Each structure stands twice: as structure tokens, then as C-alpha cells.
Amino acid sequence: MKIHIITIFPESFISYFWSSIIKKAIDSNLIEFKYYKLNDFSSNNFKRVDSKAYWMHWQVISPEPLSKAIEHVFRVIWKKVKVIYMSPSWDLLTQEKVENYYNKLWEEFIIICGHYEWIDQRIIDLYVDYCISIWEYVISSWELATQVFVDSIARNIPWVLWNNTSLEEDSFSKKFNRQKEYPVYTKPDIFMWKKVPEILLSGNHKKIEEWKLKNLT
């Protein structure tokens, strides 16, 4: 999977993407990131990429540099690919939607990281295929939302997780009818007078599977 990220702050991805599961996927050549600093596509003398919105009190990313950045990616990879805009509204992510997006986008796509409040609507009209939100609230920089989205997508790539069975039994998985997971326990068997349920110590796989389904939250 190759992901092209258009952003004002490409450096903000380094600490998270170069750790844990995403780092493992990069090292295994399962996922690749290309970053494009939006300011590099600005014709403004000060490399500004925003302007005040008409009849509003906040700044909005201008269409010209963003259009140039998207078209640049298309030229570099010699094709047009799906474009995602991480936004504070529109399509709220769920685990089922993450799986659907993975199936649609698994090869290569572009993510636009907004900043300030919004981007010019004409970019959405002309280029964007999917507007995705991680929830119904506003954050200052949508690089954070992009990291959430990419992490959720990357977990679906085969061999990214150490044990693919864990993906099948995640919270909100298809196996669990999109419900939250059952309670989980580990050693010691007794901690502060609280004991692990006897069924989990029994070794009876059938009964344990029944317990899991019965205790979904």
C-alpha cells in the first residue's frame, strides 16, 4: 500500500509512523508513505497557503496550492488515484467502514490534511472522492486524524499484525457482530482477591468461545 500525504506539517508524522505497528509495516515493505509539503506549491512570496473565508472569521486553505499539489502527485505516479480529505464532518468512521475503505484503497491513494477550519469547497468538488471524519469534533490539525485513519487501515494489511486472528476478534469486528470485545484477563489467576473466570482456565475451547460471545459488551 502506498499513501501520498499532502500536509503543511510533514514532520508531524515521523514520531508515530516510525514506531510500533506502522514501523513494522514500513520495514516489511507492506506500506509506503510519500509526503508533500503544501507550502512548496504556493505562489505566495511568503509561501502562505491560506486565506480568510468569505463572510467568515477563520482562515481556509486556498484552492490554488492544493490543486497544484494534487496534480503534482498525479503526474509523479503517472495516474489518477482516489483522494481522501480528512474533515471535521461528513462520513464518520466505524470499524466496518474502515474495512470497506481498505478494500477500496488498498493499492495507492492520496490524503489531504486540512488545517485551520476547512479547505476551499471547490477542491472537494473537483478532486475529493471521500470525506472522512474520525468523530464529531474539531481539531486544529488534521494530521492527527490522518494518523488515526492510516493506523486503522494498516491493521488490515496481511502480516502487519503479529497474529491475524487478533484482527478477527477485535472490538467491532464482523465475527462479534460489530459489538465491543469481551473482558480479557492474563496472569496471575488471582489479583487483589479478584479471580480469572473459571471457564477461561478450563481449556474447553467450545465453552470458552460461548463465553466470549455471551460476554460481548
Description:
The protein is α/β, with parallel strands linked by helices and 217 residues long. The chain has 2 domains: 2-154, SPOUT methyltransferase, trefoil knot domain (Alpha/beta knot), CATH 3.40.1280; 164-214, Trp Operon Repressor, Chain A, CATH 1.10.1270.20. It is built from 9 helices and 10 strands. The protein has a 5-stranded parallel sheet with strand order 2-1-6-5-8, with helices on both faces. Strand 3 and strand 4 form a beta hairpin.
Could you give a short description of this structure?
It contains nine helices and ten strands. A hairpin with a 6-residue loop joins strand 3 and strand 4.
Q: Quickly count the domains.
A: 2
Q: What is the H/E order?
A: EHHEEEHEHEEHEHHEEHH
What strand order characterises the main sheet?
A: 2-1-6-5-8
Per the CATH scheme, the topology name of the largest domain is Alpha/beta knot
Secondary-structure-based class equals alpha/beta
> Could you give the distance between the termini?
33 Å
Q: What proportion of the residues is helical, as a percent range?
A: 25-40%
CATH A-level architecture of the largest domain:
3-Layer(aba) Sandwich
Strand content: 15-25%
| The CATH C-level class name of the largest domain | Alpha Beta
Gyration radius over CA: 21 Å
Largest sheet data: 5 strands, parallel
Number of helices: 9
Any idea what the shape is? Answer: elongated
Number of strands: 10
Low-confidence stretches: none
What is the CATH H-level superfamily of the largest domain? Answer: SPOUT methyltransferase, trefoil knot domain
- Mean pLDDT equals 88
